[in-house]
Every structure is written in C-alpha cells, then in structure tokens.
Amino acid sequence: GETIGILGGGQLGRMIAMAAAQLGYRCHIYAPEADSIAAEVSAAFTHAQWHDTEALARFAADCAVVTYEFENVPVAPLSAIGDVPLHPHPRALETAQDRLTEKHFVVSLGGRPAPFAPVASAADLAAAMAGIGTPGILKTRREGYDGKGQWRIMEPGDADGLDLPEQPLIYEGFVTFLAEFSVILCRGADGDIRYFDSPENVHAGGILSVSTVPAAPEVEAQVPAARELAARIAETLGYVGVLTLEFFATGDGPVFNEMAPRVHNSGHWTIEGALTSQFENHVRAICGLPLGDTRLAAKGVEMRNLIGDEAHDWPAILSDPANHLHLYGKAAARPGRKMGHVTRLTLG
Ligand code: ATP
Ligand code: MG
Ligand code: MG
C-alpha cells in the first residue's frame, strides 16, 4: 500500500499507524527520539532532528502524504517536504504553537477565551495581574503540555518569589468552570465536517485523567456553540484531519481554553466507543477518502488514563472483562507519564 508519513513518534502516532494499517497503508515515522513507540508498529523510521532538512526531504520522498501527531514540530524546516501533501496545513501548527497567536486567532473568529495578557517581564506580570485580577495562571506561550510550564497564582503575593523563565509568557484569568469538555471534529479533503460526541474531561494536576461520553446535560447544552467556533476555525485554516478544541463550560457559556491540531487524548474513547475512531477518520481525511460515521457505538463510554505506575498491574485491569486496555509500550514509567488508557462501554 501507499505510505503515510507521520511527524512525531509518541502514542498518538502509534495509534494513527495502527488505524492506517487496518486500511492497508504502511507508515513511516519521523522523530527525534531513538525509542519511538510509533516506529515500533510502523514499516519505516527516520530517527532525525526536526531541523534536519535533508532527512526530512528523504523521508518525504518515501511518503504519499505527511501528517503530524505532535504540535510543536518546528514549521520552517517543513518546506523540505516539498510537493508531498502535508495535512493538516502547517498554518494550523503555526497558530496553535503560540498561546497568544492562538487566542488572537480564536477571538477574531468570535471565540471567547479567559481574559489574557502577554508577559515579557515582571512589570508586565504585575500589570496583567492588576488588570485581570487573581487567581490566574501564568503559562509559557510555547511548548507546554500536560500542565508543564504553568504557574498558578492564587493571590498577588504569589508572584513575588517567582523566578520567571527566559521565554515569552501569557497570564490568564482563572476560569470558574462547571466542567471541561472538548470538541473533536474531522474535516475531510472535500470540506465535509463530522463531529464526535463531546467528552466531559476531568484533569488532575494539569493532566487529563478521565473523559466521559455523553457529557452532563448542562455541558452538552454548550456543545453547539463550541462546535460552531470549531467549524469556523477548521474552515479558516483549510483544515484536513482531526482537530480538537478544549473548552470550559461556565455559567456564561463555553470559554475556549486551547486547540490541538491533531488527534487528542480526550478522543481515545472513540477507538471502541464510536462507529469510526478519531484515528481512522484522521487517516481517511488526509488520504482524501470519505469519512466514517462518528456516532456513539454504546450508551456511554468512559476513558481513564494510566499515568506513571498506574499501568503496572495490567492483569488486574484485565480481570474485569469490560475493560479495554491500551498500553503504549513505553519502557520507563515516570511520574506524570501517560503509559496507557482503559476504556469502558456502557451498553444500552
Ligand atoms: P494539554 O496537555 O491539554 O495540552 P496544557 O499544558 O496545554 O495541556 P492547559 O490545557 O492550558 O495545559 O491547562 C491544563 C489544565 O489546567 C486545563 O485543562 C484546566 O484544567 C486547567 N486550566 C488551564 N488554564 C486554566 C484557566 N485559565 N482557568 C482554569 N483552569 C485552567
Ligand atoms: Mg496544550
Ligand atoms: Mg489542554
């Protein structure tokens, strides 16, 4: 079959590759880490740095289409991919890589994030805290994930001892939310948009812990407005593939948190819980194929992440036959590291 190139070597790439194999494609992983868990289930692996344009060009020459599973792939070297189609369009990467750019873009399309201000100095931070108030969260504009690169500021004094990193930051007002949810859509090459049911997401220590579908009714009520924003974003970016937006459901409607130009942890429940998974639909979209039905395949679904040593006793997890266990094959369990997940379906 044809070869799909995947930039990034983690569990998202691994699950894209597994879905691609079902459709008869082979995958070629490009990643800077030698021990890629996506490469383990793929036909080819280029182990090279993001800025190695010669390696990127050789990789692309083997691929019919290229996609990415990691949102911090540097954009400039991607021109080395040349004429090979790259989906989603790299302008989605550019937008999502900087929290400030992303928020301005979303506001321009009618979305509503938490109040925010860029911070480049201690004086900026004091001004942002005075204008927006506390509590708030200070975040690095780039490269944060799983709550890394974030500082919670509960009261003005909390900022005093802060050793600010030498990189651009953003201060956000703390949102009092009823719940968190995500919009996960897939846009086909022909512009067809399919939405998955929106999971309600619970985070612990900045890391996704549990996603539940369907969301509570008061959360579900905010999904249509959130989907409209997501569709405008996808259309404006000329997006092809799976796109995820994270929201806070508030007493005042949905508040945008952030977007991910890729398949998403809060969509892992779709492997068993939707008629077509986010991974299969992403593959279909980037390969120019018609999209599959995204409807729920059960009455309800719960996906729980296995973080750190939670994946240790997998026979115990499997002793309940209702558990679908996914282990990512990572060698070392470190605190906060996503090792796998468990999905449970509730039947009608
Ligand atoms: P991801 O792994 O989802 O990319 P991230 O490091 O980009 O995570 P965020 O999504 O910005 O982090 O924040 C992680 C979590 O922290 C959110 O899901 C939410 O629970 C909480 N959080 C972040 N920003 C705010 C905010 N402004 N108000 C309230 N809670 C927030
Ligand atoms: Mg993020
Ligand atoms: Mg997030």
From TrEMBL:
Coiled coil: none annotated. It comes from Novosphingobium endophyticum. The keyword ATP-binding applies. GO terms for biological process: 'de novo' IMP biosynthetic process. Catalyzes the ATP-dependent conversion of 5-aminoimidazole ribonucleotide (AIR) and HCO(3)- to N5-carboxyaminoimidazole ribonucleotide (N5-CAIR). Catalyzes the ATP-dependent conversion of 5-aminoimidazole ribonucleotide (AIR) and HCO(3)(-) to N5-carboxyaminoimidazole ribonucleotide (N5-CAIR). Homodimer. InterPro entries: ATP-grasp, ATP-grasp_carboxylate-amine, ATP_grasp_subdomain_1, PreATP-grasp_dom_sf, PurK, PurK_C, PurT/PurK_preATP-grasp, Rudment_hybrid_motif. Pathway: Purine metabolism; IMP biosynthesis via de novo pathway; 5-amino-1-(5-phospho-D-ribosyl)imidazole-4-carboxylate from 5-amino-1-(5-phospho-D-ribosyl)imidazole (N5-CAIR route): step 1/2. One of its GO terms (cellular component) is cytosol. This is N5-carboxyaminoimidazole ribonucleotide synthase. It is an enzyme of class 6 (ligase).
